[in-house]
Specification:
The protein is mainly beta and 622 residues long. The chain is built from nine helices and 33 strands.
């Protein structure tokens, strides 16, 4: 069927109706525009402040004018005098005070799920951040007291400006303070692009931050945003070049970085990781962040005079960060290990040491000390967990015949267990376990190390007349337990025992005769260059430790011509020793001087001598 034809009157009524409807809509639109133009937006300051306070769980206020431009596909708002209070647990301070905050957003991208800010401008912000000793921090805006720890994800920003910002940071968990300025702007000209800068003092030392990237105006939500950064904190310098796969999700990024500094332990202030003390370092690697997991791959570089390479992974999803590291060295300079215990590496020509470590070395040299007294920072050890594997293919140690090293340790809630500590020798090894319990106020260190399958002539490479006067098997064991914040304190309180045994071997007859002491035969053999050897039937040195003092329980040196007995005392606290060995000839001698052999003085450099004052020369020839 067909619709009836419309008459002229009907058409006129339809057009008139449309005209009335259009007039009504235009009037409503005009009223709405006039409302927006004439409305006092300051009436919304209270509701906006209360809404923001309810969402964040803390007091937020707008003390100045609220300016709004809503009649656009890119509406904008300016908040004058924004004040953000600290959470209740932090007291009555202010987290932030901003003179003017301007925000402009694009509406159409919201239909595709993209948040894009056309403009974000912050004028004269004064920001004061606090992290408490228990880990709570004032920049966490979750409603409960437990920090969320989730990475910051910002909307895409096409223009970001910070004018004359001031920043103060008090980190009581890491014992860190910062005071300085921060600014951000879009530069024009040949160096066009985004630049963020921070300058100040970190724990009293100069601090500098520079971050740069491409022009923000050209950012696309689907394209990675490249950036570079430089951080200088005292003598530590870190440079990086990388990208954000999704601008500006700070929970995901990758970058190639270089770190140079005097001591890896200094990075605790920047990373929160309790890294060990080291000589000056230069490291490179690729850092990747995926949420709360950081991976440092293809790590390589130098620690002091030792090379280092491997991979690191840090997981921050639990209460304490967990560090997993697999590291190795082609060549380890043995003296670099001294820094691990608060000491200093070698400081001679061609050696690498920081100015602070050189000062420590000079002080230890003046005091003839071996055990350093630098205090252990137990709060750092308690702040993280770890598992570390390390292997050294070769070791450079001029005075020790070390070939390689193998180490595995775990750190769990302040308990450090080095369950595998192995130093390989040309024959045999020195191996065992060491435990550091830092869960209590004064740490307790326990060590159980064994020397097995070793050779005397390799550990004591003495030469006489082009030959080695001592040869034989050598075994031993060190069991000590002490309390203290430093190695020196621990050794000063150590209890336990030390045993060294030569089950069989040979000694040059001349030295055995002199221990007797048969002056005529012993000196004659030495002067003639006679290399005759006599068997070492057994040699034992057994010391018991009590409160840092080792006292000999048994010292015996048994050879075919001579039987030696000794006594001794080694004070680990004062780092001095006094050992006396008397030789008794098994056969009658024409001339026999009963002059004990002594080893005495500082452990760092003891003196070998003969107790001449007690010598007795029997016989008419004497």
């Amino acid at each position: 069927p067909y619709a009836p034809a419309r008459g002229p009157e009907t058409e006129r009524r339809r057009r008139r109706g449309l005209q009335i409807a259009a007039g009504v809509l235009a009037s409503l639109a005009l009223v709405f525009v006039l409302f927006l133009l004439l409305f006092d937006w300051n009436m919304l300051r209270g509701p906006v402040s209360r809404f923001a306070s309810a969402q964040t769980g803390r007091q937020i206020a707008i003390t100045g004018d609220l300016e709004v431009r809503p009649w656009s596909l890119k509406p904008a708002a300016a908040f004058n005098g924004v004040v953000v209070d600290d959470p209740e647990w932090a007291g009555e301070g202010k987290t932030a005070q901003v003179e003017r905050l301007t925000v402009q957003m694009e509406l159409l991208p919201l239909l595709r799920g993209h948040r894009i800010l056309t403009r974000l401008e912050v004028r004269h912000p004064d920001v004061r951040l606090l992290r408490a000793a228990d880990g709570r921090h004032t920049w966490d805006f979750s409603k409960d007291d437990k920090p969320s720890g989730e990475p910051l994800e910002l909307p895409l920003i096409r223009r970001f400006v910070i004018e004359e910002g001031e920043l103060r940071f008090d980190d009581r968990q890491r014992d860190l303070t910062f005071s300085g300025t921060i600014s951000a702007q879009e530069e024009a000209g040949g160096a066009q692009g985004f630049r963020l800068a921070g300058d100040g003092r970190l724990n009293g030392e100069p601090f500098r931050l520079r971050v740069g990237g491409g022009p923000l105006i050209n950012i696309d939500p689907g394209d990675p945003y490249p950036f570079d950064a430089e951080v200088r904190a005292g003598a530590t310098r870190i440079t990086a070049k990388g990208a954000l796969p999704e601008p500006f999700d700070l929970g995901r990024f990758h970058l190639d970085l270089t770190a140079v500094g005097p001591d890896l332990a200094d990075l605790y202030r920047l990373t929160g990781l309790a890294l060990p003390n080291t000589p000056p370092y230069e490291l490179k690697g690729r850092l990747v962040r995926e949420g709360r997991v950081y991976s440092l791959d293809d790590l390589g570089g130098r620690l002091g005079d030792s090379d280092i390479r491997g991979d690191l992974r840090v997981d921050t999803r639990e209460e304490r960060p967990f560090l997993h590291a697999d590291l190795r060295s082609r060549r380890l300079d043995f003296d670099d290990l001294a820094t691990l215990f608060g000491g200093a590496p070698a400081t001679g020509v061609g050696e690498t040491a920081s100015q602070g470590q050189q000062a420590v070395a000079r002080q230890m040299q003046v005091n003839a000390r071996i055990f350093p007294d630098s205090p252990l920072q137990v709060e750092r050890i308690r702040a993280m967990d770890a598992e570390l594997s390390y292997r050294a293919e070769a070791i450079e140690a001029p005075h020790l015949p070390l070939r390689g090293a193998d180490l595995h340790l775990t750190l769990d809630k302040g308990l450090l267990n080095a369950d595998r500590v192995v130093f390989s020798l040309p024959q045999g090894d020195f191996s065992g376990a060491i435990q550091l319990d830092a869960r209590q106020d004064v740490p307790v260190t326990t060590m159980d190390m064994r020397l097995s399958g070793a050779r005397l002539e390799q550990l004591i490479p003495v030469q006489s007349g082009g030959a080695q006067p001592l040869r034989g098997d050598l075994v031993g064991r060190v069991q000590l337990r002490g309390r203290g914040l430093s190695v020196h304190d621990t050794m000063s309180t150590a209890d336990g025992e030390v045993v060294v045994v030569i089950p069989q071997g040979e000694v040059r007859e001349a030295f055995a005769e002199l221990l007797g002491v048969n002056v005529v035969k012993g000196l004659g053999l030495l002067l003639s260059g006679d290399q005759s050897q006599v068997p070492i039937r057994c040699a034992v040195g057994h010391f018991r430790a009590r409160n840092g003092v080792l006292r000999s329980n048994q010292i015996v040196f048994d050879t075919e011509p001579v039987l030696g007995h000794g006594e001794g005392r080694i004070d680990l606290g004062r780092e001095r020793m006094s050992v006396r060995i008397d030789g008794e000839a098994k056969e009658p001698r024409l001339i026999r001087l009963m002059a004990p052999v002594t080893v005495s003085g500082p452990l760092r450099k003891p003196s070998l001598g003969v107790e001449a004052g007690g010598a007795i020369a029997p016989g008419g020839l004497a």
